[in-house]
Structure prediction request, 143 residues.
Amino acid sequence: MALCEHFKPGSHPYEVLLVLDDHLGPTEALVRCRACAQSYLIELLDWLGSERLFRVAEPDAAATRTLLRDLERGSCDLARAGEEVRHFSLISERLPVLLLLDTDENVIRRRIDVVDADAIPAASWRELPCDGEWIERTQAARL
Ligand SMILES: [Zn+2]
Prediction:
C-alpha cells in the first residue's frame, strides 16, 4: 500500500471527510482523494509557522464506512464516538511517507518518502514537542 500519485506538491487533491482532532486547523483528519476516492488518515507530527507535517495511514475500508455511518447517524454518545475513533486510528496501516502541508496556501508543499518508518514517532501530536524539528529534518533529508 502506498499514498496515491495524486498527492503531488503544489496540489490540494483531497477533501476532508472527518476532523478527528483540531488545533487552529485539523491535526488528525480522515481525508479522501478526489481523483481515486482512496481514504487516508493524516496525523500531525510537527509544525513550523504555516507548515504542518503529517504522518499518513491507510485506514481499513470497512472500518471507514462503519465510522462514517455511525458518526452520520449522530450518536450523542461522545465517549463512545471517541473510542470508535481511537480504535479506527489503531487499525489504520501507517504508510512510509510524510506530507508537508502549507496551511496558508492550502496546498501540499512536499511529500517525503520515509526509509525507516520505525524512526517516525507514533505518538499523538499532543504528546509530541511540535517544535519544528521534524520539519527541519525532512528539509535536511535525514530520514
Ligand atoms: Zn488518488
User: Anything to note?
Assistant: Residues 4, 6, 33, 35-36, 38 surround zinc ion (CB under 6 Å). The beta strands are 14-22, 26-33, 39-48, 51-58, 93-102, 107-113.
